[in-house]
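Fold this: Putative glutamine amidotransferase
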Amino acid sequence: MRRPLIGISAYVEPVDWAVWRGVRAVLVPEAYVRAVTVAGGRAVVLPPDDGDGDVLTVLDGLLLAGGADVGPGRYGHLPDPRTEDRPDRDAGELTLLSAALAAELPVLGVCRGMQLLAVAYGGTLHQHLPDVVGHEGHRPAPGVYGAHPARFAPGSLAATVLAGVDRVNSYHHQAVADPGRLTVSGWAADGVIEAVEDPGRPFVLGVQWHPENEPDPRPIAALVRAARQRPPASDRPARPAPRPATPRGR
């Protein structure tokens, strides 16, 4: 049986390796690839490209990876000085997301990916979470993960996927303020939204933490499982996707 092909959205960043310095490279942390592979999928790295979402016709699932902030213009806010966005990622990933939703592909958003899901569904973000919750626990220090309790709504997709999980890792300074048309299904003890989903679709889930760096990356395993169970293209009715988030007038 062919392994499900899981597209992972990638970064474009200046990097150093060997004798090369500051070379712009397409990359994604290997932890995402490893988690997809261990779950029985085949990872396909997708660089930012907003030309079209045609690549989704050969994929079985989409994983929106973490990374820099979503541009505030996408949800009608002025930028906070501490916001660091990547317009190329926003444009490319929203194009992929729109195509994935129209094709009923399973979608998992991780950290930034969950925030992008919320924005695509008409929501908004807190641009600097410590201003809201009054502490730095969700991103204790540069490159240092926090950890905190989490709870999930009974009967939700998040609760099913994460049965028995009550603590997650954490590395983010932004968070979902308004989930738009998504349903909130997970919370941290301080009220920060930790999971969102679309109950009207087979598998659209966003998690605020980084399951690729957990010893038991259940959300990624669930994405691969949903991709494997997806019906053949000939049996799937076309569905409209939510309108992609475009910069709003300020």
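Helices lie at 30-38, 87-102, 112-120, 130-133, 157-161, 218-229. The longest strand covers residues 20-27.
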